[in-house]
Amino acid sequence: MKVVHIEAGKHLYGGALQVVFLLRELSRVAGDEHLLVCTRGAAIAAAVRALGVRVIELPLGGDTDLGMPWRLFAVLRRERPDLVHLHSRRGADLWGALAARLAGVPVLLSRRVDNPEARPWVALKYRLYDRVVTISQGIRRVLLAEGVPAAKVVCVPSAVDTGRYRPAADAPAARAALRAEFALPDDALVVGMAAQFIARKGHQTLLDALPAVLAAQPRVRFLLFGRGPLQAGIAADIERRGLGQTVQLPGFRDDLERLLPGLDLLVHPAAMEGLGVALLQAAACALPIVAGRAGGIPEIVHDGENGYLHTPGDVPTLARQLITLLADAGLRARFGAAGRAIVEREFSIAAMVAGNRRVYGELLAAKSSTR
Asked: Which keywords annotate this record (predicted)?
């Protein structure tokens, strides 16, 4: 079996990390061949080459790049794969599917977001795919509600590397190191958030909740990791609110496995979320989580078991949940242990790889039957 994987993202987080996990395991299967087509200069290229997987870098300009399907078609015509697996948007979902259709190759799409699309567009676009793999049941429900046939949509949850993301062997040392690195008081309660600075992640909701949280827990400090188009505006709002001593924006970090175990909890007040890789990473590090009840988040955060859920935008409830967890170290420990158990049970890399391989087998069987 030969599979061409197409990932158009530029940065190595979220969905791109899932592609690395998948290719790492698939490359070990004797007799199979996998290769990655990615954006020229993308961070994923080096990570995948290190696995021994062949990489083809192309200019992939996104939805408006009208030359993209022809460049992808040229690769497919030369490589003659059995399957094409599309892993991202940014034009890969549409142009990659068209290229696969032109080449006569079965194609599947990994859908990682829960944002709705217009039904007429869905009716046209999703005819291009032989199968759609959603990373959460929440995303699957969105597609079914928009009219995509149930037989075409299968859920294979994203995975987390529980060997890399795990509780610290020396928890006091991890806490002390984090506080020293970010110049925080030794006795600070530290809340983290790891998300792109885009509207649907809920940064503004969090800032609105901070006055109540600080009134109850003046020792609390916040580290908002990530980058994005709203970062400068959020930074300005933090200063305007007089929160510069309370909230830091350290930018994007690729060493969260080292930082997360030093936090007290993770907050993620998102209004939309396909699943949330950062939530999986935090749960694997035994952190309790406070998050919006959106998309696939409830599949990771079980309300009252390993964290709390609230209606997106509900500032008073978000504040109350943060205050409750910050005030109770024992509750944080119980929630954290439960979260670790959930990811070990339901979000393993082995299960994610097996689920995708199962879909590959179904499509190849259908292709053989048609012939």
From this structure: Transferase
